[in-house]
Amino acid sequence: MSKRESKASSKNDDNPAVIIERLRNYISELIKENAYLKKELNQALESIGGQKPLHDPETIKKIFDMYLEENKSLQKITEELTKENIKTKRGGKWYRSTVKYILENTQYVNLGYITEDKLKRAQEKLRKNSRAKK
């Protein structure tokens, strides 16, 4: 590279339009990489856990809040999710077993949707409720 090309190149490095374009390209690459990593994570989770987790953090948080904070039963949660037209990961109907699976699933802590404390509280409440029914 000649001195003239080097000076032109360094001037371009300070150009806001060039910086913005580089940032756009970088963000685009991160988005592609994130999609790839999500796919890889789903495949890994399926291979060890059998099912993919629901990927809507808001719905997951809502389920935990309804169960722990609002003290709603599994049945009431399924009714409310259905009434609000919130779909399962496969676009299907909500069942008590689906909600229970979510409340027991450690993958949502690993994905950062809920805290470990919230998961433990939900699991303990599920255990107490199952013992009370026996």
TrEMBL record:
Record key words, sorted: Coiled coil
Name of this chain's protein: Recombinase domain-containing protein
Domain Recombinase: 40-132
KW Lipoprotein (keyword) present: no
Entry coiled-coil feature ranges: 20-47
The organism of origin for this protein: Geosporobacter ferrireducens
Pfam families: Recombinase (PF07508)
Keyword Heme (UniProt): no
InterPro entries reported for this sequence: DNA_bind_recomb_sf (IPR038109), DNA_bind_recombinase_dom (IPR011109)
GO function term, MF aspect, one: DNA strand exchange activity
